[in-house]
Structure formats: structure tokens, C-alpha cells
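User: Second chain of the day. Same drill as before.
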Amino acid sequence: MKTTLGRRTRVLAATTATAGLVLVAGCSSDGNGGSGTKTAAGGVEVVKAGQLTTCTHLPYPPFQSEIDGKVQGFDVALIDLVADDLGVKQAIVDQPFENFKTGGSLNAGQCDLAAAGMTITEERKKNVDFSDPYFEATQAVLVDKKSGISSFADLKGKKVGAQAQTTGEDYAKSKGLDPVSFESSDAVINGLRTGQVQAVVIDYPVVQGWLKDKANAAAFEVAEQINTGEQYGFTVKKGNTKLREAINKALKDAKADGTYKKLYEQWIGPYDESAASASPAA
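Assistant: Same format as last time:
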């Protein structure tokens, strides 16, 4: 999740549950989002009548990114299901990751929830409430095939890149590395492509999607996939129990009726039962 500051926040609104989202406004201070709480189905309060406002940070494929002028991805599709249950439409606000990692955007009433491929951690739980886990995540070491790097252990003494303020960066530091920080997943991978770094540590699903391109797969490879025990969750303002429960219900229903599996295969790749077996967030 990149942390570009000084960039105008963009607000995007949903078209359909599967088609994604389209740009409708140029800045976050439109005067509507903070006009008072409204009530959706089930007594869930939303910051703007008729919509479920989601904070994210673009791009972070395959979870959320702009494709053909629309914001689409796995997270987008799952939150569309929540919006449908509440009888509203999803709208997306693109902000720096730090804004909702700390709960700032939620506390300020700029959005109802955050969906950004965010790992559930004890530190983040101090600032926000997480939904049940919806995705089992691992880290990957991505390298040029000519690098001679075949494992994480080979990174010692190498110039390694990672996305700023992510668990990938934290993991690299915890193992004694001093990674070069990049603002986004795109920037990290571009740093590897252009030779700024010799390897990157990044969420495996991002790499998985990037390597679907034959040209990328011809030149780069995953040296090692690292199971760090990470799980992704959606976040709400602390104490927003009704919305948290609505998100959990939508996730449970999607797993039960096959919708989750369908969306997983559409956006992530071959379905693994472990992706749906995550235990509820504490």
C-alpha cells in the first residue's frame, strides 16, 4: 500500500457489483461525506446516505487497481457484497495508506471502512477493529532470473526493496536486512526491473498477478515463498460493531454459497481451501 502524500484524494463510486468502480469526483473535501451519519439496512450507520464509503490506496493489484478506467479487484468485489446486503452502493476513496492504517480516516468520518489488502496485526488492532480474516497471505522474494539468488538467505549483503510501511518491509527488517523503501507495489517491482535493487520482498499475491504477464515471467521469478502466517482483514472504526458484523456476515455467506471461490479464482488464481479456512479475528 503506497503512502504518497500531497496527492489529491480521489473519490470513486460503484457501477455494478462485478464491473468495478468509476471516477466521479476530484477531491475528498466535497462537503457531503461529513454531513452527518445516515442509516443503512440493519441499522448500520454510514458516513454518506446511500453509499458505503471505502478507503483504499491504489494501486494494489489484484486487490484493487484501476483497470480500463474502473477500480476493480478482489477487495472491491467482496465489499460490493457488503454494500448489496446494506442496500447501498460502494464508493471508494483513494488515500495514503497511513491515513487508515492508524484509523485516522475512519475517526474523521471520511470513510466507513478500509479495504486495502491489510494484514491483521496486534499493533493495528489498537487503532481499528478488524473483520474476520478473508485471505491467507504469504511473502515472496522476487528476483531477476540472472541474479543467482535462490532463497531469502541469499539476500544478505544484497540491495533489497520493499513497500514502505508494510509487513513485507517489517519482515525484511526483522531478519537483519535494511530494505530500500518504495511508495507502492508498482514502484517496488519497477525498482527491481530497472536494477535499483537486486531483489524485493513483497506480498505473494501481487507477484502472482504480475508474473501472469509472459514477458515478466520470462525475466523474473520467485526465489522463495515465505509463509509468515499473515491474514488480511477489512477495518472499521473501533466500536463500529454493526458494520463489522455486516462485513463478517457477507464473507461467511460468500464462502457458503460459492461466491468467494468464484471471485478468488477471478482475481487471485487457483483456489486453495486454506484461503477460506482462516480463523476469526480476535
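Residues 142 and 222 are 5 Å apart (CA to CA).

User: Great, on to the next one.
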